[in-house]
Design a protein that fits this description.
Layout: H1 2-10, H2 34-42, E1 50-61, E2 65-75, E3 79-86, E4 89-96, E5 101-105, E6 110-114, H3 116-123, H4 129-137, E7 150-154, E8 157-162, E9 169-174, E10 181-188, E11 193-198, E12 202-204, E13 209-211, E14 213-220, E15 223-236, E16 251-253
Parallel strand pairs: 6-16
Antiparallel strand pairs: 1-2, 1-15, 2-3, 3-4, 4-5, 5-6, 7-8, 8-9, 9-10, 10-11, 11-14, 12-13, 14-15
Length: 258
């Protein structure tokens, strides 16, 4: 049960839009102000009403490895529907909105309904709708304009790091041409927990720049989880449906029972 739940949360676009070449990324060489890095990151346009991602995903923890396909439908700032399939069969679905997270899984006939509070506690990092949406778009999880950051150069990338809260240390690394995020990390030393999201490369579309893939690495005292997501096909601004209903007879679970 937990395997698919984690994958849906973390995983929590093929037609008219022909992608341009994979973007060449720049190497940082001269230190600039943190405000300049942040401003340049947000200068990248996000011009879509709906987004449809067809992806492949690989999930691995200390006990299991699973390869699946994923359909991700996004209505900007309103809802995200994630469908997980194995051999063409839908095994799990999640519907995420700004106020709720709903999920069901066919193995075990279980479903979950709740808000982000319990989910954030279970995953070991604060989550909300914007952070989930930003993850898929290749944007910083947090609104960088709301906090102060120290800037440096690391691995030929601009690094922003916040240490204002010792319980929650955040860092964001950017390439220097378009200031696309290459890695973002949240460390919680007291709980011995780390969440890292890596974006190996990007592609430019007419509407915006999107990642080609992302890797999610989560480490907690109870173990490690690795999720690799590769975007296969992309469609912008179609009239999408978001079908979600829990089959009859499924048992509701609660976050402390997972």
């Amino acid at each position: 049960m937990k395997k698919y739940f984690t994958l849906v949360v973390s995983v929590l676009l093929f037609a008219s839009c022909k992608p341009k070449a994979v973007l060449v990324e720049g190497n940082a060489s001269t230190t600039i102000a943190a405000d300049k890095v942040i401003e340049s990151h947000y200068n990248n346009k996000v011009d879509f009403s709906t987004l449809y991602i067809r992806a492949s995903a690989r999930y691995e923890d200390d006990k299991n490895t699973q390869n699946v396909s994923a359909d991700i439908r996004i209505k900007k700032d309103e809802k995200i529907l994630i469908s997980i399939r194995v051999l063409g069969l839908t095994m799990a679905k999640a519907l995420i909105t700004p106020t709720s997270v709903q999920y069901f899984e066919k193995i075990g006939n279980k479903y979950f309904e709740g808000n982000y509070e319990g989910l954030s506690q279970w995953l070991g990092t604060d989550l909300d709708y914007n952070k989930v949406q930003n993850m898929f778009l290749g944007k910083a999880l947090d609104d960088l304009r709301k906090e102060k950051y120290a800037v440096s150069i690391m691995e030929k990338l601009y690094k922003l790091e916040s240490k204002s809260n010792e319980k929650n240390i955040k860092s964001f690394l950017f390439e220097s041409d378009n200031f696309l995020i290459k890695r973002q990390e949240i460390n919680q030393p007291l709980q011995d927990r780390t969440l890292q999201i890596v974006y190996p490369d990007y592609k430019k579309y007419n509407e915006m720049i999107l990642p080609l893939s992302l890797t999610i690495n989560a480490r907690q005292q109870k173990g490690k989880t690795n999720i690799e997501i590769e975007y296969k096909n992309v469609t912008f601004n179609e009239d999408l449906s978001f079908p979600y209903s829990v089959p009859e007879g499924y048992e509701r679970i609660y976050i402390d029972k997972i």
